[in-house]
Specification:
The structure holds 3 protein chains of 3 kinds. Chain A is α/β, with parallel strands linked by helices. Chain A folds into 2 domains: 3-202, P-loop containing nucleotide triphosphate hydrolases (Rossmann fold, 3-Layer(aba) Sandwich); 213-280, no CATH class. In chain A, 31% of the residues lie in helices and 32% in strands. In chain A, the strands form 3 sheets. In chain A, strands 5-6-7-3-8-9 form a 6-stranded mixed sheet, sandwiched between helices. In chain A, helix 5 links the parallel strand 6 (147-151) and strand 7. The longest helix of chain A is centred in the middle third of the chain and has 18 residues, at 159-176. Chain A is elongated, with a radius of gyration of 21 Å. Chain B has 2 domains: 14-77, Winged helix-like DNA-binding domain superfamily/Winged helix DNA-binding domain (Arc Repressor Mutant, subunit A, Orthogonal Bundle), CATH 1.10.10.10; 84-128. In chain B, strands 1-2 form a two-stranded antiparallel ribbon. In chain B, strand 1 and strand 2 (74-77) form a beta hairpin. In chain B, helix 1 packs across helix 3. Chain C has helices at residues 2-40, 50-64, 66-100, 103-106, 113-142, 144-150, 156-159, 165-184, 187-213, 282-292, 307-335; strands spanning 217-222, 230-233, 240-243, 252-259, 296-302. In chain C, strand 2 (230-233) and strand 3 (240-243) form a beta hairpin. Chain C is elongated. The two termini of chain C are 23 Å apart. The chains are: A alpha/beta, B mainly alpha, C mainly alpha.
């Protein structure tokens, strides 16, 4: 299977500020990929590098086998806060898409607009946040990209608008089979929708992998206090907390942990992400 | 056409929940042999989940012999689990009602009864798995 | 891309177009008035010396007519048009997209950044040139009798409102606005900077650059004090300066100095008994005394016939600057953006 995105020691600096350092990724195509991390971690930067709006300072990035260039017909992008042209109507946005894209699917665009209940004659500046997000999604998806990048598309939406957006997004994936990379700092949404996860904290990739594998490979270990826990080969401690009597470890391992010293608990995706986020910010 | 829902806090994997809901619908007689299940697109449009999850659930159901995928047409129910299957188990129902009265007489309130039942049931299932 | 450019350009283009239509209508309506006035003053078809006085009569009659206001309005518009185009067409073009974030939407469509900017530059630049050119052409034709009578076409205020030069400034101002928006990324800041730069260019043009572009002529002729002349004199030092209006018709005077036989500027000192407020019969004795000083008038000027060569040269320079800035913008938007 080809890769949707390959990064190799990818670094982006703005003057003295480092947005991304030394990121290495190999994201498979055909998945819904979640990109999660705290604000300022570098998620927007990574997405903009992937769609050619930014150039790397060091390292290499490849999207669908090519160097990213803005204006590619194969990659679509929905930016943060879903900007739209306030004075153009919904229909005019679609017209823009038709004129500016070679592979524009006008039928899909019109169906989606009707399904979401947007009035084609309405000026985009008067739409609600959820409606704007749906419009931006339609414009990005109707050019039939192989890869769709979304930068926190649901962050500013109310729960119903958020749910509607994700439903639309999943329908599009089911219909067109495109790869999706979606950034968010709301893990609960990602859990139901993503099957591949990247955790980005303080400009670095902390963990990346298939969601089922991550769930199977991470456990929380609780036991009596032990300062230097040696769990053996193939087991990495992601996070550890100690009270005066108790130690709690978050461990990533390929092999099952059957040391009776520890109580082994499964973790859900949100717990795993939080473990990496708190460890990464220290 | 049945509708799915997802309980994100149940601890049960999403694809498993879908399978359980199909089985439940079959048991209750909401789905009959020959009925069409919603398409993957319809399911994810309703419940915002990954399409692969739905595909996985439908494949599992097909493996169990409950449904069959017909290319280009959709996924159809091939076997019912008996609409009156619950009715067949009248003795079990009466036994359960007896147990419930005993629990009430022992002074357990509704929550305690539910907790006792669920923990015993889970331990029982895990021991069997 | 063409539809998109037009759709975004619709509003500012319509407003500017409307303004132009009003002016052109005004010129059309007063056209007949101007030719009537010229005919009545006997200026049309006159020959030789009779033309001088007919011309003066004609010009005076125009002053009282509505046509005069029309003339001023049209000149003012042509001079202000570049600044307005730079601020309202050019500056928001890229800056608004960068500021509002819509560039993220449009640059993820299947159009390269270079092509996006190129189409917008060409569209706006050509529209600016055509609009300004049309107004300039109409005004030049409309004012033809007035210009012939006053022979003042090289005057900076008139020169900038005739021929090709306004077109050059309009195109350049537009591209200055686009470049400012691209570099500064904020619409209001870009508008302010564009205003300063274009105003600066329009002031620097006539006073710094145009004299260098023209073929200047420097002559020294004996000072003619028979006619009227101006004297300025300092009470204490008795220093004086003489100013005589030159008699070169249609020329643009760059410098006018009264010089001594050695070539240096004449500064007196004046003989207070013959020249000055204390001298009796100052009107008779002063000119006689001045004649004895053998003064000359040194003029540096550009001949009236230089009008079209100078127009072409300045236009060429402006277009070269426009092209350079355009190429720079296209390079910048491709290489850097964020």
């Amino acid at each position: 299977m080809t890769s949707a995105l390959i990064a190799d020691a990818l670094t982006k600096r703005y003057g003295r500020r480092t947005a991304l350092s030394d990121c290495t990724l190999d994201v498979p195509a055909g998945h819904v990929v979640g990109l999660v991390g705290p604000n300022g971690a570098g998620k927007s930067t990574l997405l903009q590098l992937a769609c050619g709006l930014l150039d790397p300072t060091a390292g290499r990035i490849e999207v669908l086998g090519e160097r990213p260039v803005s204006g590619s017909p194969r990659v679509g992008f929905v930016a943060q806060d879903t900007p739209v042209y306030p004075n153009l109507t919904v229909a005019e946005h679609l017209r823009m898409g038709a004129h500016l894209n070679t592979g524009w699917d006008a039928g899909l665009a019109e169906r989606r607009i009707a399904q979401v209940g947007l009035d084609p004659a309405q000026k985009a500046g008067k739409l609600s946040g959820g409606q704007r997000a749906q419009l931006a999604l339609t414009v990005a998806a109707a050019k039939r990209p192989e890869l769709l990048l979304l930068d926190e598309p649901v962050a500013a939406l109310d729960p119903l608008a958020r749910r509607n957006f994700l439903q639309s997004l999943m329908e599009l994936t089911a219909e067109q089979g495109m790869s999706i990379v979606m950034s968010s700092h709301l893990v609960a949404d990602l859990e139901r929708v993503c099957d591949y996860l990247i955790v980005l904290v303080a400009s670095r990739v902390r963990v990346a992998g298939d969601v089922d594998e991550l769930l199977a490979g991470h456990h929380r270990l609780v036991g009596a206090r032990r300062d230097r826990a040696d769990l053996g080969a193939g087991r990495a401690v992601v996070e550890q907390r100690h009270t005066d009597v108790q130690s709690t470890l978050v461990v990533r391992s390929t092999a099952p942990i059957d040391d009776p010293y520890w109580q082994v608990n499964r973790m859900d995706l949100e717990d795993i992400v939080l473990a990496y986020m708190s460890e990464g910010q220290r | 056409m049945i509708e799915f829902h997802l309980d994100s806090r149940s601890g049960v994997a999403p694809y498993m929940q879908l399978i359980q809901q199909v089985r439940h619908a079959l048991r209750l007689g909401l789905l009959h042999e020959g009925d069409k299940l919603p398409t993957v697109k319809e399911v994810v449009g309703q419940v915002a989940i990954n399409p692969n999850t739905v595909s996985k659930a439908y494949r599992e159901l097909e493996y169990e012999g409950l449904v069959a995928a017909r290319p280009g047409l959709g996924t159809f129910v091939t076997r019912s689990l008996g609409s009156d299957s619950l009715g067949k188990h009248e003795p079990l129902r009466r036994g359960l009602e007896g147990w419930l009265s005993e629990a009430r007489e022992a002074g357990l309130d509704d929550e305690s009864i539910e907790a006792l039942f669920l923990s015993t049931f889970r331990a029982f299932s895990e021991a069997r798995a | 891309m063409i539809w998109m450019t037009w759709r975004q350009f619709r509003a500012p283009a319509s407003v500017t177009g409307g303004l132009l239509v009003v002016l052109l209508a005004g010129l059309a309506l007063t056209w007949v008035d101007v030719s009537d006035l010229a005919a009545r003053a006997g200026y049309t078809g006159c020959q030789g010396d009779a033309c001088a006085s007919a011309g003066k009569t004609f010009l005076q009659s125009v002053q009282q007519n509505l046509a005069h206001d029309m003339h001023l309005a049209a000149i003012a518009t042509l001079i202000l048009l570049p600044v307005l185009l730079g601020i309202f067409w050019g500056a928001p073009l890229v800056a608004r997209e960068l500021e509002s974030g819509t560039y993220r939407m449009v640059f993820s469509q299947t159009v390269s950044r270079g092509r996006w900017l190129l189409v917008k530059l060409v569209f706006g630049g050509v529209a600016a040139a055509l609009g300004t050119g049309l107004l300039s052409l109409m005004l030049s034709r409309w004012a033809q009798p007035i210009d012939a009578a006053s022979a003042d076409r090289l005057n900076p205020l008139v020169f900038a409102a005739r021929g090709l030069v306004p077109v050059g400034y309009a195109a350049l101002a537009f591209v200055v606005g686009v470049t400012a928006g691209l570099l500064l990324r904020r619409t209001v800041t870009a508008m302010a900077v564009t205003l300063l730069v274009v105003a600066g260019l329009q002031l620097a043009g006539p006073f710094l650059v145009r004299p260098l572009l023209a073929d200047r002529v420097t002559t020294t002729t004996p000072l003619n004090v028979d006619g009227r002349f101006g004297i300025s004199m300092s009470e204490e030092t008795k220093e004086m300066q003489i100013h005589v209006e030159p008699d070169v018709r249609g020329a643009w005077i760059l410098s006018n100095t009264t010089v001594t036989p050695t070539g240096a500027e004449f500064r007196g000192p004046a003989d207070p008994t013959l020249c000055g407020p204390e001298a009796p019969r100052d009107n008779e004795t002063c000119p006689l005394w001045l004649k004895k000083q053998n003064l000359g008038q040194q003029l540096t000027y550009v001949e009236g016939s230089q009008f079209w060569p100078l127009q072409w040269r300045e236009f060429g320079l402006l277009i070269a600057l426009t092209a350079t800035l355009s190429v720079f913008s296209l390079w910048w938007i491709r290489r850097r953006l964020a």
